[in-house]
């Protein structure tokens, strides 16, 4: 059975035979194929992994030997760097499993089978529910208006709407029940973040809420903790009931991270949750839904799948969250979101969270939120965290690999430092991963063509520090919450400056400092003006060549937080480059 699908008990495939070897193993305890020069790779369900992708270069893939994909003490490809990472082969990496909860051509037809509900007729038959649990703490009431305004100004909090609750300054001021406060104290948080300080009173009061804040601001807990209070005030689930809380998210990675927070803080209340996303079999998800869960975290496509096949319903949903609403609209999920929300009772509480506030998100809020109150944290201009040192290197495409290796070598002494490298395409992500592993770096890739099983394993290895370099496409740019990311490298500049902000926001989180290095080529020239604005706002050094190009550029107008133009202009020659490092090592200060 070498190289073919079989029902072994392992649960994770191993990554391939070494260069010159045959396929070896089976899927579920199998090889994903051999490196170049070897025999055929494994088959899984008829799709061959052999000889290509991560195992396919003539140097023997990522190294010799047989390394386990997810088992025990996997080692990383050898060669090149004094045997630093052992002798494992990464083999031929997987395809399939793409889509964010059911992508491809099916997206346009998703939800066609959902019955439109006449809520005017149905609503009177549904049970009443509670959604206002907020009682202002005496210490909060005692603060003067000038003190409240000073707090908001200091934390860059702006509020919009009528009768907006005052912010709290300590956890015990939020009117959380003791069982919630105990969970917070157990984690060891010192004080609420700005979005939590203002967002908790808003959410607990039962109002519809819009929250606009950068990634890493603590917004997940801003809606998760009030959701636990909300659930515990509702009647218990009955057989056949769907969830009480529904959280929509754009990607599997973000959905899983939200689930971790729900599990951590809902544990003492015995609140059950599940996470629905595409790229994995539906059976296990269906079985959990049938058992009954209070919280459902889902990507839109997979949730609609479950609704259409009758495995769940949204009749009990009274607390709806749309997280990263701007990202969901960017990814084309608006029709699916509207179909889902139309299945939920209109007197629900709705909370929408977004990193930006473009007109498309505003339109969605107007359609589905009633008399909402809004909190904005940080400048409404598109800006980067001031905890991040931003470095821009002007170079040609040809120079990128050399610069990448030089940069990684400068930080290689810090074995605990994690690095994310963003690329523009899945192909480049795989190529860079192969290139780095051949040079002895413990690097793994994640993108939309990876099977979910592989993506989960890659993230486990990265979080544990076993593979401290992650190469990613923008599938991981948002929602990725990993501690101790010291460096973000934009190997390819993203399609817009909004994604630039979200990418570099993977570092410098929760008050920590970080560094972001961006390779900027002539092909990226249309972004020069907005990039200069972001660097200047954060008081970062601006390369003279980039400033000059921004002056020559005719585009980049408009309010960047609301979208805005990019423009043309003359390019710089491929030989031009700017090195921010001077003659010293990496991290030697800004010029």
Fold and architecture overview:
It contains 18 helices and 18 strands. It has 591 residues and is an alpha/beta fold. The strands form four sheets. The protein has an eight-stranded mixed β-sheet, with helices on both faces. Strands 13-18-17-14-16-15 form a six-stranded parallel β-sheet, with helices on both faces. A hairpin with a 2-residue loop joins β3 and β4. α9 (300-308) packs across α11 (334-341) and α17 (528-537) packs across α18 (544-552). The longest helix is centred in the middle third of the chain and has 15 residues, at 252-266. It is globular, with a radius of gyration of 25 Å. The protein starts with 24 loop residues before the first strand and ends in a 39-residue tail after the last helix. Residues 1-106 and 555-591 have low confidence and may be disordered.
SSE diagram, text form:
Layout: E1 25-26, E2 29-30, E3 43-44, E4 47-48, H1 119-122, H2 138-142, H3 145-154, E5 157-160, H4 178-187, H5 194-204, E6 209-212, H6 219-232, E7 245-248, H7 252-266, E8 273-276, H8 283-291, E9 295-298, H9 300-308, E10 319-322, H10 325-330, H11 334-341, E11 349-354, H12 359-368, E12 373-377, E13 388-394, H13 400-411, E14 418-422, H14 426-438, E15 443-446, H15 452-464, E16 469-472, E17 485-490, H16 497-504, E18 514-520, H17 528-537, H18 544-552
Parallel strand pairs: 6-11, 6-12, 7-9, 7-10, 8-9, 10-11, 13-18, 14-16, 14-17, 15-16, 17-18
Antiparallel strand pairs: 1-2, 3-4, 5-12
Helix pairs in contact: 5-6, 6-7, 9-11, 17-18
């Amino acid at each position: 059975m070498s190289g073919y699908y079989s029902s072994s008990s392992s649960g994770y495939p191993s990554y391939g035979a070494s260069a010159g070897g045959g396929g070896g193993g089976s899927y579920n305890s199998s090889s994903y194929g051999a490196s170049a020069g070897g025999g055929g790779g494994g088959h899984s369900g008829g799709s061959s992994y052999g000889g290509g992708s991560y195992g396919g270069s003539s140097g023997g893939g990522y190294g010799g030997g047989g390394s386990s994909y997810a088992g025990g003490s996997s080692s990383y490809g050898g060669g090149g760097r004094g045997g630093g990472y052992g002798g494992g082969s990464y083999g031929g990496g997987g395809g399939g499993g793409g889509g964010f909860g059911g992508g491809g051509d099916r997206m346009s037809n998703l939800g066609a089978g959902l019955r439109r509900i006449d809520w005017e007729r149905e609503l009177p038959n549904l049970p009443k529910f509670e959604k206002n649990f907020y009682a202002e703490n005496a210490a909060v009431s005692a603060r003067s208006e000038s003190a409240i305004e000073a707090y908001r100004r200091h934390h860059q909090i702006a509020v919009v709407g009528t009768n907006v609750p005052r912010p709290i300054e300590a956890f015990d001021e939020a009117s959380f029940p003791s069982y919630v406060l105990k969970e917070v104290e157990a984690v060891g948080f010192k004080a609420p973040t700005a979005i939590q300080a203002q967002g908790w009173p808003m959410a607990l009061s039962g109002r519809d809420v819009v929250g606009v804040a950068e990634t890493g601001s603590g917004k997940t807990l801003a809606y998760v903790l009030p959701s636990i209070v909300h659930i515990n005030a509702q009647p218990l689930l009955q057989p056949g009931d769907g969830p009480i809380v529904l959280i929509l998210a754009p990607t599997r990675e973000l959905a899983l991270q939200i689930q971790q927070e729900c599990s951590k803080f809902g544990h003492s209340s015995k609140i059950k949750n599940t996470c629905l996303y595409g790229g994995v079999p539906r059976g296990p998800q269906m079985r959990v839904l049938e058992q009954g869960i209070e919280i459902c975290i889902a990507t839109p496509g997979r949730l609609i799948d479950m609704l259409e096949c009758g495995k769940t319903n949204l009749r009990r949903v009274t607390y709806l969250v749309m997280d990263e609403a701007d990202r969901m609209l960017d990814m084309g999920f608006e029709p699916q979101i509207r179909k889902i929300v139309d299945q939920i009772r209109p007197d629900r509480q709705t909370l929408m969270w977004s990193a930006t506030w473009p007109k498309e998100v505003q339109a969605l809020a107007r359609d589905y939120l009633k008399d909402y109150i809004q909190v904005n944290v940080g400048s409404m201009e598109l800006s980067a965290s001031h905890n991040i040192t931003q470095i821009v290197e002007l170079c040609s495409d040809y120079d990128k690999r050399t610069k990448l290796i030089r940069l990684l070598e400068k930080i290689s002494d810090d074995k605990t430092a994690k690095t994310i490298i963003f690329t523009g395409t899945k192909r480049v992500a795989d190529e860079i991963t192969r290139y780095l592993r051949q040079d002895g770096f413990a690097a793994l890739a994640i993108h939309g063509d990876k099977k979910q099983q592989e993506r989960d394993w890659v993230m486990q290895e990265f979080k544990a520090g076993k593979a401290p370099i992650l190469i990613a496409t923008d599938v991981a740019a948002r929602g990725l919450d990993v501690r101790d990311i010291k460096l973000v490298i934009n190997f390819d500049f993203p399609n817009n400056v909004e994604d630039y902000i979200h990418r570099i926001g993977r570092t410098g989180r929760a008050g920590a400092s970080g560094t972001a290095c961006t390779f900027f080529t002539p092909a990226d020239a249309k972004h020069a003006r907005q990039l200069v604005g972001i660097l200047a706002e954060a008081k970062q050094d601006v390369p003279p060549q980039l400033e000059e190009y921004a002056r020559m550029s005719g585009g980049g107008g408009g309010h960047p937080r609301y979208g805005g133009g990019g423009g043309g202009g003359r390019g710089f020659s491929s030989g031009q480059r700017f090195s921010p490092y001077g003659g010293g090592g990496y991290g030697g200060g800004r010029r």
